[in-house]
Amino acid sequence: MTELVLLASFLIAFAIGSNDASNALSISIGAGVIKLKRAIFLFGILVFLGIWLNGNRVMETVGKNLIEIHSKTLGFSLLISAILIILSNWKKLPLSTHQIIIGSLIGNAFAEGSTINFISLLKILLSWIISPITALFMSFFLYRIVEKIFLKVALFKIERFLKIFLLISASLISYNTGANEVATVLGPLIYSGVYINFFLIFSVSSFLVFLGAYLLSYRVIETVGKGIVPLDPLSGFVAQISAGITLFSFTLLGMPISTTYCMIGAITGVGMTKDLRTVKLELIKKIILSWGLSLSLALFLSLIITKIVLKIL
Amino acid sequence: MLEKLIGGEKLEKRALEYIQNYLKIFISAQECLKTLLLTEDLERSYCIENLEREADSVRREIISTIYKGAFLPYIRPNLCTFIEITEKAFDFLKTCAFEFRYINKEFYKDIKDDVVRIASINVEMAEILYKAFQSLLKKDNLREKNLAIRICEKKIDELKLNLTEKIRQKEITNFWEGKNVSDFTEALAKISDIIEDASDYLYILDISLK
């Protein structure tokens, strides 16, 4: 069964690379700060460092504190997660990686009749709500502060500052992709009780994230960076650094949260500095629907499949 | 290491030096026209063509340095547009010098004072434009320079009105003579419009990243 857990975790890592690299890199690439190949290479290194240096808390929350892991059926639940994530990436469905994984694990626990730590679950659910709101307020106030500072600085100094800080904020998001997103995937595997070489697992999974980003992310990055998001470099920097700081804070607290939602919250915050009407209620409805759908779909499928597997085994 | 990663730091320095050089050539060309109009020494009219050629090669260097990777792509088009706007002023300077070679010197005597005053204000405006660009390098009051350029432009508008009134009172019997005077005064007065446009563009550039 270990092989199945490994396969599913690695598949999700690859899917994260292909889809979520755009969160970290699209603004910097769109702003022309760094070239695509160089950015993806840097992304891969930072993902590895993120898992290695700060991934432990999130891994502990997901793999140890949330449910009692059963290595026999865990592989099937994670495989469902992998299939759902790949399918949602392929079909462009608004399903979140975190919600799918947590949903699958809860479904597995229900089927196995094992204990679920509802306080941990509540903390995770709350962090999903609080994190985009935190990013929103942080970017709103940070934009106001930076805007005031920039009024006193010469144009070409601002330009140089933005170049460096866009790269730093992209690096922070990349680091958090490892420390939070990939850690959420690896948590159940690490705490499944099977003997594994952690360093090897971290290396292989970050290589797969890199591979996913290298092979499949360029279209998403170019579309988001140069097409869909018409962010000026200052707004882009503020949005990204706010999302990055929020993510890092929640990572330190061990909470598995979505980078995409933090970015949406931060971009909305920047938009609110211009006009309050930029807050799109439709988008908020979509996010809530996506949360509910991802979580319940993964939970339901995992519950059914685990029950079937338990009957067969 | 970070600078190496980002790259382009040297390119930016070079582009900024080129732009400053370009604006210095612009001031020299303005001064050259003023001396030509003041001394009526036709030999002087050729220095404007030479300076225009020099500015043209610097302009090409600026555009290619910018597109080699200097500055964020977000401000690249704005910088290039600023250069292209200023380039138009060189065209008018050239037209002015060219038309001056054929102007009726008797006729010119009556309008010389106004023409030289316009040329002097143009020199002043070019110098302010150079200082305005330098404000982008080290934070200085760009708005103040922008305002000074607008005031100069208003003065030139008034002088042009005065000049047109004077010309209208003269009897012109030859078509080519009339066209020559019209083209000359039109080109001379247009230079300040271009400088004003360039200054406005610098202001837009300054607020574009804020």
From TrEMBL, chain B:
Residues 142-169 form a coiled coil. InterPro entries: DUF47, PhoU-like_sf, Put_Phosphate_transp_reg. It holds the Pfam family PhoU_div. Signal peptide: none annotated. The keyword Coiled coil applies. It comes from the Bacteria. Keywords: Coiled coil. Belongs to the UPF0111 family. This is TIGR00153 family protein. The lineage of its organism: Bacteria, Pseudomonadati, Thermodesulfobacteriota, Thermodesulfobacteria, Thermodesulfobacteriales.
